[in-house]
Amino acid sequence: TQLLEQSPQFLSIQEGENLTVYCNSSSVFSSLQWYRQEPGEGPVLLVTVVTGGEVKKLKRLTFQFGDARKDSSLHITAAQPGDTGLYLCASPQGGAQKLVFGQGTRLTINP
Amino acid sequence: GAVVSQHPSRVICKSGTSVKIECRSLDFQATTMFWYRQFPKQSLMLMATSNEGSKATYEQGVEKDKFLINHASLTLSTLTVTSAHPEDSSFYICSASKGRGYGYTFGSGTRLTVV
């Protein structure tokens, strides 16, 4: 199983600040997905990146896929308390395309 | 959009009893369903992958006799936690996919507490 290393695992910042979360692997990702999970709920898909060097934007969230497709980042601009949650990267693996998750980044935005 | 319904959302059971969790794809046929377990403040850990009409494939370290998975139709998979113990208390989440390239839809999870 390809391991996904996510960092940082915990991040607490003030409203209005910017932040970046990273997801890395020693192997090439076929594709990579970012999810956000609220307490007591299932994860919700934010974005899928497939092509090396790809950049996707979702309002204040910017997702980048590394040129070598071994790393990805999620950047949030002007964070708001509503951004608080668990952010997860995940990659489909194997013939069954089972979705394997990174350790997650627990983000807290303080008003 | 694709919707997956998971029931129950919360269940409390006595130690030694069995609990069944259902995962249904409401508006699509799921060729593959996945079951995850999530402990507090941790990520989702894949337990098993199930395909309709065949035996589930379990991840290393997951006891297949304890966590029984049945994928009887293209819209329903069940996870039965047998002889539950307090250490089985966790958040269980299912996911369904129509196949390669179609993405994954997650259920809202089941909070299991074994007392």
List the main descriptive attributes of the protein structure presented here.
heterodimer, A: 111 residues, mainly beta, 6-stranded mixed beta sheet, 5-stranded antiparallel beta sheet, B: 115 residues, 7-stranded mixed beta sheet, 0% helix
Please tell me about this protein's structure.
The complex is a heterodimer of chains A (111) and B (115). With 111 residues, chain A is mainly β. Chain A is 0% helix and 54% strand. In chain A, strands 2, 4, 5, 9, 10 and 11 form a six-stranded mixed beta sheet that branches. A five-stranded antiparallel beta sheet of chain A has the order 1-3-8-7-6, with no helix packed on it. In chain A, a hairpin with a 5-residue loop joins β7 and β8. The radius of gyration of chain A is 13 Å and the shape is globular. In chain A, 35% of the residues are buried. The mean pLDDT of chain A is 95. Chain B starts with a strand and ends with a strand. Chain B is mostly beta strands and 115 residues long. In chain B, the strands form two sheets. In chain B, strands 2, 4, 5, 6, 9, 10 and 11 form a seven-stranded mixed beta sheet that branches. Chain B has a four-stranded antiparallel beta sheet with strand order 1-3-8-7, with no helix packed on it. Helix content of chain B is 0%, strand content 51%. Classes of the chains: A mainly beta (111), B mainly beta (115). At the A-B interface, β5, β9 and β10 of A face β4, β5 and β9 of B.
Helices and strands in order, then pairings?
The complex is a heterodimer of chains A (111) and B (115).
Chain A: E1 5-7, E2 10-14, E3 19-24, E4 32-37, E5 44-49, E6 55-58, E7 61-65, E8 71-76, E9 85-93, E10 98-101, E11 105-110
Parallel strand pairs in A: 2-11
Antiparallel strand pairs in A: 1-3, 3-8, 4-5, 4-9, 6-7, 7-8, 9-10, 9-11
Chain B: E1 4-7, E2 10-13, E3 19-25, E4 32-38, E5 45-51, E6 57-58, E7 67-73, E8 76-81, E9 90-97, E10 105-106, E11 110-114
Parallel strand pairs in B: 2-11
Antiparallel strand pairs in B: 1-3, 3-8, 4-5, 4-9, 5-6, 7-8, 9-10, 9-11
